[in-house]
Amino acid sequence: MPFLNLSTNVNVEGVDTSAILNEATSTVADLIGKPEAYVMIVLNGSVPIAFGGTEEPAAYGELVSIGGLNPSVNKKLSAAISAILEAKLSVSPSRFFLKFYDTKGSNFGWNGTTF
């Protein structure tokens, strides 16, 4: 059930968002070790964001997972998601924050129940 919520000030109209979602899905699943069928990605574009006093392309993300996260995996995820955002949306890795949450299954609802 990994969930990656990405927000960026980049306008994503006209951008192949499916490519971003597909690449992020496979990357998260692979690095966390969960099936792609349980990975959810949300991409919010045109969000007003100032970073370092400028509105140059920037992004913020939060990744929640029931297990699978640790310092080594988090570092790989940060690098991989940064690379996707840089390649697809021209967001420099230095203008992207990614916060990680490792949660218990009882804190996540799905299919009318919890994990």
From TrEMBL:
InterPro entries with a match to the protein in the record: Macrophage_inhib_fac (IPR001398), Tautomerase/MIF_sf (IPR014347)
Transmembrane segments: none
Molecular function as annotated in GO: phenylpyruvate tautomerase activity
An example Gene Ontology CC term for this record: extracellular space
Family according to the record: Belongs to the MIF family.
Designated name of the protein: Light-inducible protein atls1
